[in-house]
Structure formats: C-alpha cells, structure tokens
C-alpha cells in the first residue's frame, strides 16, 4: 500500500523536500514507517510527534492505504460552533482592530485579549527575526479543539485565535487570542487557558536569527513521540 509523508520545520530542510510517497507493507505501523523514513532520508525522528490525517497518533498505530503521515518536531511554544469561533493561520499582520468587530456582541459584556509579539533581546541575545512555520490544516483543528475545551470550562464564549507565519521582526505580532464572554472572569480565565494549551499543542515552529546565527527554538512534546 502507499502512504504519503509530510516533513515540517527542520525536517523539511534536512530531508530536502516537503512530501514523499512511499510503498509499505500492509500492517505497517507509524513506528515502522518512521524507521523506513530515517533510513531512506538519513533523518533522525527521535522525539518527534506524528499526525495521521491531521490528528495526533501513537507510534503503534497501524496505517491504512492513502494515509497522510506528518512528522512533527516538538512544537515551539468537541468542535466549536462555527459562528462563535474564528481560527486562522495567515502570513499577513494580526490586528486588534480586525478582532474587535468579530468579538464584540451585545450579549457579551467582557472581552479579553492576548497579543504575543517577537521579543528582543531574548535570553540575552539580540534577535534579528524569527521565521514561523506551521502545519496549517492541523493547527486549525487544534485551535478549534482548544476553543471547545475553553467552553467546557467557562461556558458560552466567542473565540478568535490567529497565528502568523513567515518572517517576523521584533515587535511584530505572532499570535492573537481574543475571548468574549458575558462576564469578566470567564473571559480572562478562558484566554489564559487558551494561551497555555496552544503553547503545548499547536504545531508551529520558530527558526530564530540572533547575533550568534540561526537556530530552531526548542519546543515541547505533549503527545507520544518516536
């Protein structure tokens, strides 16, 4: 059977390609495929997470013909009602002036926002820029799931989550989270929950250029890894 492999962030650069199509035997697991990819592309996938068809998967999961398997380095840093949630991964600036018209509604008396920007200096080093990469289709799913979890904890909410990709300079906004609720505490606590959840689960990577050169920013692994 044939499966489709997606390389992201540093793996894309190390492999020299973004996707590959491989013929594998029936019964092949994620771990089996990882070993084959390591051998055929001279990569180390140790510590990487895996997504099968845009959903996090365990190494022992058995693959099916036509599956899309994405190998994800550790990331840096119930479906929600469609009309109450807006989730985006985009390469254009993130603006509060665009978020407010979506969030402000008569029934919601409180809005809370988190705006994350590129910081310099970082760990004592002057940052020139950061290149952000994302596994965009899966990132949208993770954002929507996060909004759903926030509602389970804090009730009726209107949620906006946006993440920017591409090259950002110090001071530019990389992530914008907005929450509207009937009451202040729910909006603030839901916004805080979303920040922490997305830091651990969102498939986004940062390639930072500072005074010493360029490097991938160390990430987190909240899911099973290889």
Automatic annotation (TrEMBL):
Pfam families: MoaE, ThiS. InterPro entries: Beta-grasp_dom_sf, MoaE_sf, Mopterin_biosynth_MoaE, Mopterin_synth/thiamin_S_b, ThiS/MoaD-like. GO terms for biological process: Mo-molybdopterin cofactor biosynthetic process. CDD domains: MoaE (cd00756), Ubl_MoaD (cd00754). This is Molybdopterin converting factor subunit 1. It comes from Deinococcus terrestris. The gene is moaD.
